[in-house]
Amino acid sequence: xxxxxxxxxxxxxxxxxxxxxxxxxxxxxxxxxxxxxxxxxxxxxxxxxxxxxxxxxxxxxxxxxxxxxxxxxxxxxxxxxxxxxxxxxxxxxxxxxxxxxxxxxxxxxxxxxx
Amino acid sequence: xxxxxxxxxxxxxxxxxxxxxxxxxxxxxxxxxxxxxxxxxxxxxxxxxxxxxxxxxxxxxxxxxxxxxxxxxxxxxxxxxxxxxxxxxxxxxxxxxxxxxxxxxxxxxxxxxxxx
Lengths: 114, 116
Prior knowledge:
The complex is a heterodimer.
Chain A: E1 4-5, E2 10-14, E3 19-25, E4 32-38, E5 45-51, E6 56-59, E7 62-67, E8 72-77, E9 86-93, E10 102-104, E11 108-113
Parallel strand pairs in A: 2-11
Antiparallel strand pairs in A: 1-3, 3-8, 4-5, 4-9, 6-7, 7-8, 9-10, 9-11
Chain B: E1 5-7, E2 10-13, E3 19-24, E4 31-37, E5 43-50, E6 65-69, E7 75-79, E8 88-95, E9 106-107, E10 111-115
Parallel strand pairs in B: 2-10
Antiparallel strand pairs in B: 1-3, 3-7, 4-5, 4-8, 6-7, 8-9, 8-10
């Protein structure tokens, strides 16, 4: 049962353009959402997060949007840079007794072409 | 400061053998997590330690998997009688932990386990 899904295995964009990565979830108990970036042979690194009480969070070139009614979130990167090329994972946390446990999506490989 | 470290970085073993994977969390972090990433899959939660509380073992896939955390710091994940489906990258993460708001998890580089 895949509770967090990233339906696009890969995305290719031109440098300077917008990258939009999407994530869907099924568990209505999730109340905190995160995006992690992963380079080859390295562990994932935290990128940006959003609480379920918000619908948008922005940090520099990165913005995460949350649509609770649709159980959908997206990560926007503007402008995209070649150094953004990596695997991006969406993750969710249900809090309560699940505190700390993250449920991850399968990841989306982003390639930004110069 | 030093990040989360894991050893070995790569481990190749034969089916049926036992393996031990080690994780050194960031100093001062009270919470420690183990995840694994199988080929083409997302990260799968395995086990979570928080301070002196009983660990959350709900993600361990079978009783061949166990983990311990000694002295509230270093953790060892043990897989007994390894099977080919255990082949994956095993990732450890740590966080400040504690109740309340979610605390960011910092990941180590992982141990790539290959079971022949």
